[in-house]
Amino acid sequence: MTTADKATRLLALHQAPEILTVVNVWDVVSARVVADVEGTTALATASHSIAASLGYEDGERIPVDEMVDAVARIVRATELPVSADLEAGYGDPAETIRKAIGVGVVGANLEDRMRPLPEAVAAVEAAIGAARAEGVPDFVLNARTDAFLVAGDRDPADVLADAVERGRAFLEAGAPVVFVPGRLDEAQVSTLVDALGPQRLTLICVPGSLSPRRMEELGVARVSFGPWSQRVALTALKHLVGRARQGQGLPDHVEALN
């Protein structure tokens, strides 16, 4: 498939009534492991995980070209459509999207970081415009609002209202889906789906969140795991170190990788 064809495929996966579950990857080997699991239909990177694997703190500390290079290696390792976490666009969302499309990326997360709404909308419009200019009109921009992540002690009703306002604005600006990370309860998810429409909301699975099955029943388009997939892998590594220090061998369930 061409890059444009993969984007169309990824968009269709978001629009289907079945929830799209993506376990985020951060390098070639993690991408191959996830892609090889039966039923995997798309991959998504985690910016935090890629940055950590290369020795950077999260928050656009990694140079944009180094991030794009890391994503490019993942794209080359699979035939599946790949969505990239591109943080807030590294100071130039349109150019960052253009670079990502150039290496075969067909979707991206773009954070608003709760900047003034007109500024956040302009970033979404610039990203969508860049994708269309590159010949990928179905590019799946997952426009993210950080309303819940930076809520602090604000009234939850006000936070939810902000997420609704920003999500609607991002959809009007051309984003096909809106990402609202945080540990949302069922009432909050239902409100967002009602406000944005079914198969327009994407969420993250964190400890204590709704199950992906329940998210699907509520009309959520996609659920990802962000940096938690890398944390699960590193937790298993720590457990192995502990076993080794106790004189034990490998766990019985370890599988060989091709």
UniProtKB/TrEMBL annotation:
Keywords: Lyase, Pyruvate
Record carries keyword Transferase: no
Superkingdom assignment: Bacteria
CDD domains: ICL_PEPM (cd00377)
One Gene Ontology MF term: lyase activity
UniProt cross-references to InterPro entries, sorted A to Z: ICL/PEPM (IPR039556), Pyrv/PenolPyrv_kinase-like_dom (IPR015813), Pyrv_kinase-like_dom_sf (IPR040442)
Any matching Pfam family: PEP_mutase
Keyword Ligase: no
The name this protein goes by in its record: Isocitrate lyase/phosphoenolpyruvate mutase family protein
